[in-house]
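Entry 14. Ran structure prediction on the chain below.
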Amino acid sequence: MVMENHKPYIAMLFIQFVYAGMALFSKAAIAKGMNPYVFVVYRQAFATVALAPFAFFLESKQTSLSYNLLCKIFLVSLCGLTLSLNLYYVAINYTTATFAAATTNTIPVLTFIIAVCLRMESISVRQLPGIAKVLGSVISLSGALVFAFVKGPPIKFMNWYQATQKQTADSLIQNNSIGGWIKGSLIMISANTAWSLWLVIQGHIVKQYPAKIRLTALQCFFSCMQSAFWAVAAERNPSAWKLGWDVHLLSVAYCGVIVTGITYWLQVWTIEKKGPVFTAIFTPLALVITALFSAFLWKETLLWGSVGGVVLLVGGLYSVLWAKKREDGTGVHYTSLTGGTEM
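Output, structure tokens:
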């Protein structure tokens, strides 16, 4: 029974480690010249192929699929997978990778705001758990911003590569036009908003269609088709679609099979168990894990400002988790994020 209660927490930790690997592999592939739109298409195609056999043999007789529900899944795929992934990579062209990693951590706050606005999550600032959830979300977001923008002196025992510490966010911003930076920032916020909305809506879709593997496979398939139209319109060079036995193939296979396939299904399962805010609040951990792996693998300098951001990230994370556990343990009534009005 104790292990059963800890499964959602273990699943989310695993998901964040996988997402950290996704950042490392994606960075390597795109740095080698792979078109980001094409990357998304292949990523979703690999996920569909990997999940299709399991969806057919394991869940073929579990539930029926109406035309109305199929249209809902198509629209959810467009909002959550296609738009967010493609907009994310477009925004990186105008901003920096550090800014992209930092703004991704707005997802917990955006998810919480959307859920409250849709009356799918209740909150009482007169009670301690409600205050902890609000403060925890704000502190977690603040920690992500501190992690990205507040540098400070380097940590001496991890100061392996002197040239890295000179490449700060400020110098990178100066290389981009102000208009381009603002444009990229707005696109990145739009991508995060689309993903947050997907987290909230996903709870309703799971209630209507509980076959989670088939649901994930359908969303990946629809996203692949939608992204293909996007990529063909944006990239007219046929050579951009070629895959060789290199980091490009390894990256799309990893992101497709492990990330888009297994991890998305696991996230759907966690949303059904704990709700979208629970899953989204773990997002800052991927930034921390990515930074640590970058420091050890690529000899990047870890700065004291980043350490301060880590402290805030972890503090905000456990503040929200404590609040949700306190609500569940004391029987406080609140609207479940996986429930509410049917769409």
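The radius of gyration is 20 Å. Will compare against last week's run tomorrow.
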